[in-house]
Amino acid sequence: MSQVLEWLETESLGRVGLFVTRIQSVARRHLAKKTVTVRSQAREEQRTNARLFAQVAKMQSLVRMFVYRFRAARKAQRTLIQYCPHFGEPYWYNPHTQVKSWTKPKVLRHLDSYSLALPEEGLENVVNCSYCNKPAEVNCNECEDSMCRVCYDSMHCKGARLKHRSTKIPHCAYCKFQVATKACLTCIITDPARGTMRESVMEADRGHYCDTCFIHEHDSGEKALNLHKQRRKDLKNILAYSSQAYLVNQYLHQRIITSHHFEDMVQSCEECNSRSSTWRCQD
């Protein structure tokens, strides 16, 4: 009987071991398939992420290129100055490198640099010191002389002149060398448009203009003439080669066409009533 029981136990263990081996094989096969599937998905996800990262990097490079070019154009816009001579060809000037160009620099792209008009030669509204002939900064009310700061301090350092009072001569906030003759109230209280010369001027000085800069920035007729280069060139040729046409053009006093409200800081000319008075006729 014991031998039978021993045989049955051995037989059962053998069969159970066979079933265990089959179950383990099925489990290992299932686990292996699952591992292969997970690794395949991981590799596919890695390839997808790599493609996405490559596309994102390409898009970022394009965006950075556009942003950097725009930043460079904006910086060039604030650095370069376009000078517009009276009936002459405009040119661009870099005050840092002191390089002048007769064609628009490509770094500006679609933007326009700050623009300044130059007065006609010999008609600059500049006040010089009565002693050293340098640009005057103050005007002595008692002496009735315009002086630079150095000459004023040296001439009013002792005696009765110590009690003299002076008035500061306002200068144009844009061209920096001519006398300010007009104060635009609209430019003072409104924010400057982006890309205009007013953007580079301090808020307290935005309304101070000389006649040349005021007409260049505000007069609709002057702006229309600047847009039509061929018309401006034809007008320049007519005025340059015909003295009679030049005299007629000087005689035609046109009113400044602008919607801005402004005031004259000095007495206006009695003839044209648009520009400031510069000379006094003794007769």
Automatic annotation (TrEMBL):
Q: Where is the B box-type domain?
A: 124-169
Under the heading InterPro entries, the entry gives: Znf_B-box
Q: Does the keyword Zinc-finger apply?
A: yes
- One Pfam family this sequence matches: ANCHR-like_BBOX
* Molecular function as annotated in GO: zinc ion binding
Give the record's keywords alphabetically. Answer: Metal-binding, Zinc, Zinc-finger
Q: What is the protein's given name?
A: B box-type domain-containing protein
The record lists the organism as Spumella elongata
Species lineage, top-down?
Eukaryota, Sar, Stramenopiles, Ochrophyta, Chrysophyceae
